[in-house]
Amino acid sequence: MKVEPVAETIKITRRISIASPYPAILLEKEGLLVAADLHIGLEDEAEAKGIHIPTSILPIIIKHIIKPAKDLGCRGIILLGDIKHEFGPVTEPEWFGVKKLITKIRENNLTVEVVRGNHDNYIIKVLKDLKIPLHNTHLKVGSITLTHGHKMIEYRLLKEVILGHEHPAITLKDDVGVKHRFKALIHLKTESSRYIILPSVSPLAYGSDFNEVPADKMLSPILHTLDLSEAEPYVIEAGVATKKFPKIGEL
Prior knowledge:
Purple Acid Phosphatase, chain A, domain 2, 8-stranded mixed sheet
């Protein structure tokens, strides 16, 4: 039986660390784990289209949130949007999956709050039934702004920003020219602000290739005017390893 490694911290700033080797970060002072883009229900949508997923995804999603939170002694979890996958009303698999996730979080004596994502149009009823706080655009934790990333937020809030939405990845070519994609956490420090873009927790959700897609073509308007060539990617193979790569402009 495969034993996954105990989560360890890789510092990005004095207060923020990667919960390595998992697609989440730790706000150390507050004891809060932050993760984004679970897309519960994506597996069922694929199955409905005739695409069979050989391994159940929901237990992996739950494990990759609960395990680092327990290993690192967290007191709570913040989910940065796209908890569910469908844009429309909550499906039965989404309701089952969200309820199971929240139950597991609470069984481990962890608090949970949600920042709304663009896929979460109908999630308010689910969260209300489960008595989970929902933040519509962003959540402030000290100087840090936590947001999903699909909408622009006030410029005065953009000092330290943690967002999801992009499902960031980097693409590398091997010796025969074959491309390989890797989920990555992206860290960018500018003169006035800091940005951390979280990878998707869902093993099925890959999005923007940061070393191939220009900033103005990114999904998040927050990133459109930034120089991403100076951004530092941390490739995360969930449950296996985290590796820091050269800056985007050098890949």
